[in-house]
Structure formats: C-alpha cells, structure tokens
Amino acid sequence: MHAPTIRHETVALRSALPADLTRRALPLAQPRRSEAPSHPARLTPAWREALELLEQHVPFTRRMLHAGDLVHGGGEACTALHIVNSGMVRSVNFSADGREQVVGLHFKGDWLGFDGIASGRYGCDAIAMDTGEIWTFRYDTLLRTCASVPALMAVMHVAMSEQIVRDRDSLLALGTLPADARVANFLKVWAEALRDRGQRTDQITLRMTRAEIGNTLGMTLETVSRALCRMARSGVILFNEKGRRDISIPSIDALGDFMQDALAPNERVLQ
Question: Global pTM?
C-alpha cells in the first residue's frame, strides 16, 4: 500500500516573525490575525534570530502532519533539514532485529536532520507524535545562504551545539540517575521545554505510553508506573481523572526536589 501523498506548500519568505508560532500557517492571500496568543511564546534568542533569518533569506516548504506520520526515515538521503513549528516529534532508531529505541523528543523550534549531515543519510526515523506543522529547508540552499549570511551560520551552529548538549545530558541521566530520578528528570525536561515556549505546564498530555517512556529511559513499564505513582503520592504530579496520560505539574522546582530526594539514598551509600 502506498503512503498517502502529503501536499507541500512552498511559501514566499516573510521578514516579520509570526506572533504565534503554534498557530497553523495561513494561506499567503489571507492576512494574519492580529490578536495576541493566549500563551505568548518565550522564545530563546537563538531560535528567534534563526527564524527571522530563515524567513528573510531561505525558501522553505511547510506541511501538516498527524500522529504517526513520518517526517523523514532512517537511511533516506539527507537532502533537507526541518524545524518543528508546532506539535511534537520523536526520533526512533531500529536495531537489526527490529527493536525500536526512542532516542530523542523534539518540541516547537527544534531542528530535525542534523544526524544525517555527516553520512548523507538520516540516522533514524523522525515521527510526529501529534498534529503539527513542519518547516523544511533544502540543505544545499541552507549551505549557500550561510556562506553569504554569516549570522545564519552562527545560529545554525548554536542549534547544533544545543542539540549536542541535550544529547549529552540525556546520556548522563540514563547512565547515572536511579529510576525515580530518571522519570522525574524526563518530566522536568518536558515541562521546561513547554514553559520556555510559552505553553502551559499545569496540564500536560503525555503523548507516550508508559512502555514508550520506559523504552526512552531504558526501564520497564512497571518501573515507570511505580515511579509515577510515587510522584503522585508526593504531590509532585497529579493525574487527571479523565486519563492517565493527562497530568498536572504544580511546580517544576518540586520535580527537581523530588530528584534530589531520589538521589539521596545513593549519595549516602557512596559516603
């Protein structure tokens, strides 16, 4: 069965940064709405500058994806880089025997495809976790533009460096944190990513099953469930009555305190 064809829309560049990057892009003939978003995005300077420069200098395509849709597949030729404009995307590796390993989560403003630059092929699948929009930039066009716009090259380097730091921190957490602290850190990183993008953290829909979270953290489903239950009993998170994937995080700092408490027994043993 052939995958359904996704319609791409090439857009002319605009010099003005959209006020609300989470809003679905409007057709070019239709004016933008002027009302302020209910949760204005608090973008990092590097992201804001990158979007401004990209819109000014680089043509791109945009497409709407739904949960399960593929942004790019592992092994495909790396001809473009992508930015998550809305929604969430996960990066997945598949072992030779078919086992799936989630190796990264990507939020609004994150780049996709850096892993394919060295070899010329994407190293993993990038899969949409919910409905969202992806902006796609041809890599050869980006290179030519960076050569003539040094500021764009600088923000690209910042984006690459930030991804390296995130990957390093993720590996450090997987290798050094006990189970409860690992799950708390996972939720803390997720909540901070939403907060920094101007989105609410008091009500979060975890777009992953317990098994998928365990796969990401190198833990069993049962271990993840026990850690979440302990956090709920401590009041660090609250479960929504309508579904176990909907949680509330009253305080991100409280998640950090929970992590420190989970680390304390290990620290006492080392002493």
Answer: 0.75
